[in-house]
Amino acid sequence: MTQQILQRETIAAISTAIVPQQGSIGIVRLSGAQAVAIAKTLFRAPGKQPWDSHRILYGYIHHPQTQALVDEALLLIMKAPRSFTREDVVEFHCHGGIMPVQQVLQLCLEAGARLAQPGEFTLRAFLNGRLDLTQAESIADLVGARSPAASEAALAQLQGKLAHPIRSLRAQCLDILAEIEARIDFEEDLPPLNEPEIIQQINRVVGEMSRILATADRGELLRTGLKVAIVGRPNVGKSSLLNAWSRSDRAIVTNLPGTTRDVVESQLVVQGIPVQVLDTAGIRQTEDQVEKIGVERSRKAANSADLVLLTIAAEDGWTPEDEEIYHHVNHRRLILILNKIDLVAQLPPLPPLDNLSQIVKTSVPNNQGIEELEQAILDAVNLGNLQAANLDMAINQRQEAALTRAKTSLLQVQETIRNQLPLDFWTIDLRGAIQALGEITGEEVTESVLDRIFSRFCIGK
């Protein structure tokens, strides 16, 4: 992909989601040296509208050969370097829907543009110095954000909240390397190396790396969300709990055992974390073939969930059936929900349970226990203080791996110093740390890594 981009071909793609009868505007974007020329062959602006940069023209898109009218549209021109890609960029703002944008895109391709590959506009922005790699990745996170907190973290990273400290750490490592290499090359002309000061500098860098690495789990949850499965016997109030929690009638509720035959999903946001809640069929022995399939799917949902909400009814207490279900799911992180507490005067005794995070008491008719349940979920995944957490930084898996390598390299430098090895040995791992930090921001990155990152983007971004 990178070699093609270096040839500076003009690329084109649809840059908005196209859903029939759902979008009023559809955008076709071009970037490259021929973008404006292609636009002039397709677009007619009535009157004396100037084709200046950063102006919007009104007019009509025509087929260049047949002169057939294709669409009434707006044309936005952004000439290099004042554009997202730092190349000439043109956008056709067409009527929404499938046909107008597809027809305009096809005309752009026939006029000499090439269909953009996934993420190629953002890749060009990176290669042309418009963005660093952390900012480029944040764009994909922003587009895919599933909660306000995820959007906030992506925007912070787009503003350089991760790039700035990473560049600072890399600069500090380069300064340390320069000090050491100067002593190697000009040992007789310089005072001895201040070893304690070097050790202190490395300790400060390692400490800052540890602080950034601590955001990895939060970043992963913000991007992918949390999968939570509500499991239990029939008629313990699982579906009622889901309806109360989601403030909807997602699940059918009756007094008949086996009403829920399949897994019912609901998408919620708990203090900024996207949560996929799975209301499962009641787990029990049954001869009903359809219900059997639902029970098996319930077990699979529990096994795939990040967290299991084992629900029992306070009026029944802990039953042998509850014990059997518990043994099926006790290898997962568990929260025990004691539901229907409004139906009893005294809460039933519970046996000691392993791998249990918390016990939450709920009463759906009284809307009791929902807030406690949400807090218990965050506590179970070590995010109990999320609202007070700093969301300016939430690194992804690639960034975490590179930063971990950099930290390991610096720890190895410390070991080398303790073992009193020659200065040449110090520089080996220092260079490794510098390279790993450069991979995060893109100062040192291979073409294969770029292809892997940008292939996850949508076409047109």
Mind explaining what this structure looks like?
The chain has 16 helices and 13 strands. The longest helix is centred in the middle third of the chain and has 23 residues, at 163-185. The protein is of the alpha/beta class. β4 (55-62) and β5 (69-78) form a beta hairpin. The protein has a seven-stranded mixed sheet with strand order 3-4-5-6-2-1-7. Strands 9-10-8-11-12-13 form a six-stranded mixed sheet, with helices on both faces. The protein has helices spanning 2-6, 35-42, 99-110, 120-127, 133-143, 148-158, 163-185, 195-213, 216-224, 238-246, 289-304, 320-329, 370-380, 397-418, 423-441, 447-454, and strands at residues 11-14, 25-31, 43-44, 55-62, 69-78, 89-95, 114-115, 226-232, 264-270, 273-279, 307-313, 334-339, 356-361. α5 packs antiparallel against α6, α7 packs antiparallel against α15 and α14 runs antiparallel to α15.
Strand order of the largest sheet: 3-4-5-6-2-1-7
Number of E-type strands: 13
Which structural class do the helices and strands define?
Answer: alpha/beta
Number of helices: 16
Q: What is the CA-atom radius of gyration, in angstroms?
A: 29 Å
Summed over residues and divided by their number, the pLDDT gives a mean of 83
Spans of at least 5 consecutive residues with low confidence: 3-7, 249-262, 384-389
Q: What general outline do the C-alpha atoms trace? A: flat
Give the CA-CA distance, first to last residue: 15 Å
Give the strand content.
15-25%
Helix and strand pattern: HEEHEEEEHEHHHHHHEHEEHEHEEHHHH
Main sheet record: 7 strands, mixed
Helix proportion range = 40-55%
